[in-house]
Design goal:
It contains 25 helices and 19 strands. The protein is of the alpha/beta class.
Length: 645
């Protein structure tokens, strides 16, 4: 059978997909026979391999849900029926089948499709996502809205076993089980974390449990026993017990869902029949399917973590024609953090490493292997991660929470209530600060300076390069109280990194160059671009280092010798580091000096290459120079700025 074929390489030439080429919407998909659907799954997997090789992007999750995606769109009347994907890493096959096949070749690029489902992009994207564990809540809201409007459309949430670890998913299921709307939750279990295996007996059981005969008998029995509460409860417990012997669904039954499964998520005929059976069942339904991440591509099947996402596949270049062999690979900021954590843990046995399912992304692999007793991956549970750290700090430990900026937003209450209010020694290593590029606004760290600097007791630092990151991590570790160090994705300028564990004086900036008229106060890794602009304009440049507390002595010094202050940050201007400077200058200093704030504009920045997005926001050297010149012209048209007028 073609759907059983295993690919061993990503095709560099476009594969032949005659059946897929005829599908521009699920309406056409529903005209195919079951045999054609099997052929379609093969072609869809082949095209996805080719397209992601051309563009780069999320990989393994989409390969694992090819059959499930086909079955859902075949059985349900999308987009009238609302299909909600959780996170969205697995939504590439969905995008291909819903009219975006050719556009997928430029996914995650400027003016191309978003990396995740996006309501503005397609009517088939029922809910915009990027963060995990939102699908059940959203689908429940859609089901309730349909119910109130008297509409018969269905709401389907597809959630992975990883996303199901978050409390929000269980909150939604608890609510759904209580009010019993007509909705379906599909658990895509691709890590074998709930069930051990899938076989013919379980597939057969799933077909029985989802069939009309079983459910008619089940409902009739409930009606007959409704007048005898004791017998009714006994029957319910007996049904749960029988299901529990053969399927791991008792938990979901207790939450109020009718559990079906687990079934093989790559067995298309079984998927189709089970979904057809469940389509017209009333009340909350739960289908458990087991899939293999990276299905159909041998390297991804054997290494699903490594193939979570891939870069664009470039043509092979002969070694003798390539200068890359002479280049020294620069460490990423995450690598600097990972090395620092190991070094500090060697010296301080109180150090604990905590991450909400970001071991690889935050570069905690070495730490987890060298200090397994001090490493805690709490799964997708950001709130728990922060309060876990607070509990450790109460007992004299020195926990380090490695987390992405955009995900720390989900634990904001715990950050304030459990850590800052109690002034506990928790260090937050905040990765992916600023614009992250191809993953778009759901993953951009645009707001952390704004939401951190307003919290009492917090120390907030923004390193300008790799060595500054190491210095600031040590500073935060030694500080008595909560501290945060925010740093971007990818590499820095490539400066030499000290091997020691030296700290900085808290609240002290450093001078980069002395100039005239204009003082640029830079917070973070835009320093390299700021340096180019400062040299062009003969401006003073200061690496502020600390967003909280500010180096107020330096600010007083600056306002005495300059005519314009420019604040620069890769964060929202509203409430950010520049706002902190403006607040201080207006706090009784009798300072009328104009201040120009440069940062991220008051809108969500779309996906694209980080370099292009920074240019779009005016945060490259050219944009910084241009903004300063324009501001000076508005203040004094005849005033010279450096070499320009």
């Amino acid at each position: 059978m073609p759907e059983q074929a295993i690919f061993h390489e990503i095709p560099l030439q476009r594969p032949s997909t005659p059946l897929l080429d005829r599908i521009s919407s699920p309406h056409q998909l529903r005209l195919l026979s079951e045999e054609q659907l099997s052929q379609l799954s093969y072609e869809l997997r082949a095209f996805m391999l080719y397209s992601v090789g051309q563009s780069g992007g999320h990989f393994g999750a989409g390969l694992g849900v090819v059959e499930l995606t086909i079955a859902l769109h075949f059985v349900f009347n999308t987009p009238e029926d609302r299909l909600v994907w959780d996170v969205g890493h697995q939504a590439y096959p969905h995008k291909i089948l819903t009219g975006r096949r050719e556009d997928l070749l430029k996914i995650r690029q400027q003016d191309g499709p978003a990396a995740f489902p996006c309501r503005e992009e397609s009517d088939y994207d029922a809910f915009g996502v990027g963060h995990s564990s939102t699908s059940i809540s959203a689908a429940l809201g859609m089901a309730l809205a349909a119910q109130q409007k008297g509409e018969t459309r269905r709401a389907i949430a597809v959630i992975g076993d990883g996303a199901l670890t978050a409390g929000m998913a269980f909150e939604a299921m608890s609510h759904a089980g209580d009010i019993a709307p007509d909705m379906l939750v599909v658990l895509n279990d691709n890590d074998m974390s709930i069930s051990n295996n899938v076989g013919g007996l379980k597939n057969h059981l799933a077909r029985i449990l989802s069939g009309k005969t079983y459910n008619q008998v089940r409902d009739s029995g409930k009606h007959l026993l409704s007048g005898t509460p004791g017998l009714m409860e006994f029957a319910r417990k007996t049904e749960e017990h029988v299901k529990g012997l053969m399927a791991p669904g008792t938990l979901f039954e207790e939450l109020g869902f009718n559990y079906i499964g687990p079934i093989d998520g790559h067995d298309l005929p079984t998927l189709l029949r089970t979904l057809q059976n469940m389509k017209d069942l009333t009340g909350p339904q739960f289908l458990h399917v087991v899939t293999k991440k990276g299905k159909g591509f041998a390297p991804a099947e054997s290494d699903p973590i490594g193939y979570h996402a891939i870069n664009k596949i470039e043509p092979k270049v002969r070694v003798e024609d390539s200068e890359k062999r002479f280049q020294v690979t620069k460490p990423k900021f995450a690598n600097v953090f990972g090395q620092w954590l190991c070094d500090m843990a060697e010296q301080d046995t109180r150090v604990q490493g905590i991450t909400p399912a970001m071991r690889e992304g935050s570069d905690l692999i070495r730490f987890s292997e060298r200090f397994p007793d001090r490493y805690f991956d709490v799964a997708i549970a950001e709130q728990h991660a922060v309060t876990l750290a607070a509990g450790m700090a109460c007992e004299g430990m020195k926990p380090v929470v490695a987390i992405y900026s955009t995900f720390l937003q989900r634990a904001y209450d715990q950050l304030i209530h459990d850590v800052a209010v109690q002034n506990l020694d928790v260090l937050f290593a905040i990765d992916r600060a600023g614009l992250v590029g191809e993953d778009g606004p759901t993953h951009a760290g645009s707001f952390d300076l704004s939401y951190l600097r307003c919290i009492p007791n917090m120390v907030v630092m923004a390193p300008s390069d790799e060595n500054e990151l190491r210095l600031m991590l040590t500073t935060g570790h030694q500080h008595k109280g909560p501290a945060a160090v925010r740093y971007p994705r990818g590499t820095g300028p490539g400066v030499a990194i000290e091997t020691g564990l030296t700290s900085l004086e808290i609240g002290r900036s450093r001078d980069i160059r002395q100039g005239q008229e204009t003082a640029i106060l830079c917070f973070g890794t835009l320093l390299a671009e700021a340096r180019i602009a400062a040299e062009e304009l003969n401006a003073t440049l200061i690496d502020m280092r600390f967003v909280k507390p500010l180096d107020t002595e330096k600010l007083i010094e600056v306002i005495k010798s300059h005519r314009l202050i420019v604040t620069l940050e890769e964060n929202a201007i509203a409430g950010g580091a520049g706002s902190a400077v403006a607040e201080y200058l207006s706090s009784g200093l009798d300072c009328n000096l104009p201040v120009l704030h440069l940062g991220l504009p008051d809108r969500f920045i779309s996906h694209g290459k980080p370099k292009d997005l920074l240019a779009e926001c005016g945060l490259n050297a050219e944009g910084i120079s241009r903004s300063i010149r324009q501001r000076f012209k508005s203040l004094a048209p005849t005033l010279n700025v450096g070499n320009a007028s």
